[in-house]
Amino acid sequence: MSDIKDAKVKSLYKAIMLLNYFTPEHPLRSINELSELSGLLKSTVHNIMSTFSLNGIVVKDTISGKYCLGNKIFEYYNTLISSDSNRPIVKSSMNKISTISGENVYLAIPSQLQVMYIDAAYPYNNFFSRSIIGIKADMYCTAVGKAMLAFLGDDYIDRIVEKGLYPYTTYTITNKNDLIVELEKIRQRGYAVDNMEHEDGIRCVAVPIFNREDRITAAISISGPSPRITDEKVLHYSSILLDAAKDLRTKYN
């Protein structure tokens, strides 16, 4: 992530950074909270939030008096999606994979040493899947993350290791040497597996998506409860995903 010293307009940088404190775990934030988290004066935070609210970027909750992200964010997201010529192509492939596998299918991209989930496809009989679009996760413990990390170079790997390998579960890889061995396996076989490394009870299979210039652009995964994603299913799903990624490679800009 860029530092404030790199910002040309530092006041704008500080204002935008306040939006990063609104997360799925903390959708509502008070002026006091934002001030403590950012180190900015309460008066400064108040002025920024008031300005954002004029544009619908944030909204003040009438009951709690706290702020949350506003509908303007949805407009920005819709504009972003509409400008991505690759999305309809990938979405069609994701829907087919979800129908064949009967499991959730996710699309993720690299985002500041993490992955960000940007799209999902769900089987017709899955009515209770939580949306993870826009959510970030660490690369070293997710299938989509490891699928991309294996091809992003040693410097990228070193930066992630330096940041720390937090043990989300008892299965999380927390040692650099173990991670390097795992990434080499991924390069050889072409797909990655999250064996309950990020979340207990969830197993995922993922493959990287390269564009026509042989550059990593994203990763696509099949995810489901670990009892359903057996070793046999891993092999079957990896084959489906590899075929899809090969097809997308010829179409991805």
From TrEMBL:
One of its GO terms (biological process) is negative regulation of DNA-templated transcription. Residues 9-71 form the HTH iclR-type domain. It comes from the Bacteria. Gene3D superfamilies: 3.30.450.40, Winged helix-like DNA-binding domain superfamily/Winged helix DNA-binding domain (1.10.10.10). InterPro entries: GAF-like_dom_sf, HTH_MetabolicPath_Reg, Tscrpt_reg_IclR_C, Tscrpt_reg_IclR_N, WH-like_DNA-bd_sf, WH_DNA-bd_sf. Keywords: DNA-binding, Transcription, Transcription regulation. One of its GO terms (molecular function) is DNA binding. Residues 72-253 form the IclR-ED domain. This is Transcriptional regulator, IclR family, C-terminal domain protein.
